[in-house]
Amino acid sequence: MRKLILSTQAAAVIVGVMSYIWIDTVTKTEVQFSNGSACPTTCSNEQPVIADPNLQAAIRFQELRKQWLAQRTRSVWVSDMVLCPAYQSIIGMGESAIPLILAQLHSEGNEPDHWFWALRSIVEFDPVKDEDRGDIGKMAASWLEWGREQGYAG
User: Fold this and answer.
1) What order of strands is seen across the sheet that includes strand 2-6?
2) When comparing pLDDT for 1 and 91, which is higher?
């Protein structure tokens, strides 16, 4: 039997995109909350037990991101990259994907990937100045600043 301590506040569960947890559920898993209560769960289908919807979204995002990296071609056309099914599924996650995309964008540092289309599609807004278009470093900085201002990114 394994124990996992989870915070009762959803915001405290996800520290960053990379902080997702898979729980081994081959026989029995007990989820223990920070208030001391426990919730035993028996699973025979070996699927992860996810106690928090934000954590579930983070896991889904990371799965789709990996699929996108595998699916996309190394085309110079951004449209080829963003039409991949996994990328479209990330867009389909809606607002729950915004902080995850921003955290991923931040983690990529000086080599940001093409998350701008997804962000623009979800929020129906683009904070990037016309003179910065094409400079992915400046585009990433604009989106990260926007995310901080809107409360999506720290």
Assistant:
1) 2-6, 28-33, 38-42
2) 91
Find out whether 100 and 53 touch, Cβ atoms under 8 Å: no
Question: How far apart are the C-alpha atoms of 42 and 121, rounded to whole Å?
Answer: 39
The DSSP secondary structure of 27-55, one letter per residue, reads: SEEEEEETTS-EEEEE-SS-PPP---HHH
CA 49 to chain centre: 18
Going by their DSSP bridges, the two strands 2-6 and 28-33 should be labelled as parallel
Q: What is the pLDDT of residues 49-64, one digit of tens each?
A: 667 888 899 999 999 9
Tokens of 77: 């056309």
**Residue showing tokens 């000086």:** 110
- The pLDDT value recorded for residue 13 is 33
CA–CA separation, 36 vs 72, rounded Å? 45
Q: Which helix (H) or strand (E) holds 3?
A: strand 2-6
CA separation (Å) from 143 to 1, 84, 92, 104, 115? 43, 22, 19, 12, 9
Q: Phi, psi (5° rounding) for residue 149? A: -65, -35
